[in-house]
Design brief:
The protein is an all-alpha fold. Helices cover 78% and strands 0% of the residues. It has a domain of 47 residues. The longest helix is centred in the N-terminal third of the chain and has 39 residues.
Amino acid sequence: MGCFSCFDGTQKQQRKEEERQASAEARARAAEAAMRREEEFKKSAAGRAAQAQIQQMAKQKANSNTNKGEPVLKWQMS
């Protein structure tokens, strides 16, 4: 059996390469599926609402940066 060890090593390397290729293909398919789901979400009502909310939060943040140093609550004594 010792003389066939080189064949076993070649088969192991071949098997590892096939597993690596299969893994790479699976990752590529998963990435494509994720991109499709993202596109579908962006087209959906929930996706549009989420995008609008993100834009609104960005506007609020931009406005709050312009008022730095000014107190949020103002009061005066009469």
